[in-house]
């Protein structure tokens, strides 16, 4: 991937740059801190290193691949896009080595990148906590710690929803005795239970909420730095995931459902967020460009700030966006190289089309009836203008340093949403229904529907309608598959998530072969035993 430049690079002494897998102790370098943690600037740089690592982990389409492609609504193009194994994934046993490398399947089963971020944040939390208060201006120490706790909670939440039971490590690794015992044997850490992982997520969220103020709309950090609203939004998600685990395991989930309601109500009432109008395509474009009134938390992707990447080479844009060729030759627009939505899947996304204006605000050519990918050699799908592709992230800047023969040389120029206000409001509606407060959920649903050009909801299954609105509004933002798991809701009869697979927790990902080899205490995710080739 061609990278213009990346800010938020941490100082070498806190980056653990040689650590390919934090939970493989033999790979951890020693880190020397005696001369580093001496000022507010040092602490801020270390925290920004955590943001940088998280950003680097997510810009490759992680959330989109796991949260959207796995629903089966998107198919890969004739010549590119996501691997079919993401949406036809009963097992990986028929995926040979070449395809695994090409489709990055085993890399998606590798949690090492997540633990790199955790390692950085563990160091920030430990050392900033130990620094004297008079080294910081105002409440800056609490701010830095609050953001670090939020990011660590967010990473563990990702791990919990992707793999379920994962190792929990809170130590800052600073000497070899922590990873190699007296007999020169690596110190391994096995998988904690799902509940233990979520307990840690909720504990870190509590630390973050207690330290962070709400953000200020229009400020430099609005949306891209964690604040109290971000932490409370994550609290809503984490509590509903814990409620899902408790209910699945035959326990009372009400404590966590009520906690989700409380957290999300505070975001809505005090966070100073508001819904963006869908009255024009420009409004929507500006919302996804970033730092809008809906920006609860998002990953900064800005050409002007030096935080971008070539859209033709990687990121969610390379998976989802056509690009206008700079030489005017439309045959170079990548129409056969991107994910698209076939006609037979469209009713799951916008069942009230054409009344639903999101179909044309978020997608190009929604009226296309193609069920096969466009290709210049196709016998059926012959018009590149009828490829139904997602436009949410289609904001670019031309690369001024492009080569003469680079015809789609663009930098991405829109943020990647992690939480936005629409998401928070619909999640609150879900929590209301699960706590027996349908009367409070219905106005939220109607507000979202009316913004999309639809009439108020008159049906009887309010939770299903909430999930439909989340599908229609949040598609492409990494949420849907996890929504469906949390609610045991898979509306497509062709979904790979059968009832039997769901009962076996087959919604969790396998663990990569590298991790299984390097960490002897980690066992394969039970559903995947015998189903992988690594």
From TrEMBL:
<keyword id="KW-0998">Cell outer membrane</keyword>
<comment type="similarity">
    <text>Belongs to the SusD family.</text>
</comment>
<dbReference type="InterPro" id="IPR012944">
    <property type="entry name" value="SusD_RagB_dom"/>
</dbReference>
<keyword id="KW-0732">Signal</keyword>
<dbReference type="InterPro" id="IPR033985">
    <property type="entry name" value="SusD-like_N"/>
</dbReference>
<feature type="domain" description="RagB/SusD">
    <location>
        <begin position="361"/>
        <end position="528"/>
    </location>
</feature>
<dbReference type="Pfam" id="PF14322">
    <property type="entry name" value="SusD-like_3"/>
</dbReference>
<dbReference type="GO" id="GO:0009279">
    <property type="term" value="C:cell outer membrane"/>
</dbReference>
<dbReference type="Pfam" id="PF07980">
    <property type="entry name" value="SusD_RagB"/>
</dbReference>
<dbReference type="InterPro" id="IPR011990">
    <property type="entry name" value="TPR-like_helical_dom_sf"/>
</dbReference>
<feature type="domain" description="SusD-like N-terminal">
    <location>
        <begin position="97"/>
        <end position="213"/>
    </location>
</feature>
<keyword id="KW-0472">Membrane</keyword>
<protein>
    <submittedName>
        <fullName>RagB/SusD family nutrient uptake outer membrane protein</fullName>
    </submittedName>
</protein>
